[in-house]
């Protein structure tokens, strides 16, 4: 993924190249999945993303 400098994703520690697998235990396998899940979140939500970074499983809280 691309991360915009100063964005919420950037501030949370996401990095370019991270692969997002889940948002709050909801599988993300496409941009459509991402858009559907994110559109259902409230503006003050702090979802946990399950990611792969450099071959390692990790978690990032937005």
Q: What does it look like?
A:
The structure is a single chain. This protein has about 60 residues and is an alpha+beta fold. The protein has one domain (about 10-60): Pdz3 Domain (Roll), CATH 2.30.42. It has 2 helices and 4 strands. The chain has helices at about 10, 30-40; strands at about 20-25, 25, 50-55, 55-60. The chain has a 4-stranded antiparallel sheet, with helices on one face. The mean pLDDT is about 95.
Topology diagram in text:
Blueprint: H1 8-12, E1 19-23, E2 26-27, H2 31-39, E3 48-53, E4 56-61
Antiparallel strand pairs: 1-2, 1-3, 3-4
- CATH architecture label: Roll
Q: How large, in whole angstroms, is the Cα Rg?
A: 11 Å
Helical region count?
A: 2
Q: Work out the helicity level.
A: 10-25%
The secondary-structure element order is HEEHEE
CATH evolutionary superfamily: PDZ domain
Domain count: the total is 1
Fill in the CATH topology: Pdz3 Domain
Structural class: alpha+beta
Low-confidence stretches: none
Mean pLDDT: 93
Beta-strand content: 25-35%
Q: How many runs of DSSP E, i.e. beta strands? A: 4
Largest sheet: 4 strands, antiparallel
Strand order of the largest sheet: 2-1-3-4
The separation of the N and C termini measures: 15 Å
